[in-house]
Amino acid sequence: DDALQRVFPLLVANGVTTFRDMGSELNILSEVRARLDAAPDAVAPTFVAAGPLLDGVRKPWYRDLPLILETAEQARDELPGLLNTGVDFFKVYDDLEPEVFEAIATGAAEFGVFFAGHVPGDVPVARAVEAGQRTIEHLGFSTVKDCVDDPGDWFQRLVGAKFGTGYDAYYGIVREHWDAVDWNRCEPVLRAMAEPKVFFTPTLVMEINDRGRLDADAIAYKDSGGQEWCHTVLEGIEGADPELRERAYAAQFDVFRRIREAGVQLLVGTDAPNHCLVAGFSIHDELERFVEAGLTPAEVLRIATVDAARALGQEGTLGRVEAGYRADLVLLAQDPLEQIGRTRGIRGVALGG
Q1: In sequence order, which residues have a C-beta less than 8 Å from that of residue 22 and are 6 or more positions away?
Q2: CA 123 to chain centre
Q3: pLDDT mean over 233-252
Q4: Is the CB of residue 83 less than 8 Å from the CB of residue 108?
């Protein structure tokens, strides 16, 4: 109900005509697809869906979202069933054992679908790329884990700080980690990520999301539980030392620029509904982060359209205003090439017109 009545209309109202769903419980995914088939006039974007997170350890906060795969044999047994229940691609996650990851990569190739997600902790980034991982998600520690001497407990320290000690400690650890990266050692990692068939979704808005950089009015469009959690997050961020926060942001922008300068292909994504990220609205926040990080509006718009279509393998169908392409169009009141924030000034949306 929430997807059909709130999330999908919010995406369309914000000009999102195609999106990737990076994790859903299978029964919900099947129900949504069935309802859309029965209601062809429903206001909904086109989407491709990963279904459950494929992980090796059950994290309690994800409830029924993951499918736990502990052996390669389990992976080979489960993948066909996922495709038969409406999954379009596979989402790999943090704690997969290397042999299970390899089984998923092999299965994806055999079935003619792509796989995407996090690079598991025990799988080198270069190996993930070589195995065919289409997209790597999040500008986080896992992206450059092969570029530090000991990546061991960084994630646990971060979680402990953010949800326990507080954001001062959290921002200190963020800055400490990026300072620990050996960029000479990282060159092979960045070369691997710059392979032509690989895309990187930094989700800058996940970490650079204080109230001054968010569309605060959008929070009202979250569900009630999401609104409450969002205000908790914002209070934590605003209670932190502003200088510490801005230094952490500056470090993340610096890493983003290094990745971009290495020739890595980027995608626009947000990880909504996490934190204060609202369906549709958060895309515009992320476009603005890309420009804040040094890209031009023209570059950002190309990433969000032409390059997004290539990442989905639909470059002959989506992403251009051209004869023979699907007429998914957004009409704006003013030219976004002059100011990226003008993408919010939507006057009309056409879906498959």
Answers
A1: 50, 91, 116, 117, 137, 269, 271
A2: 20
A3: 92
A4: no
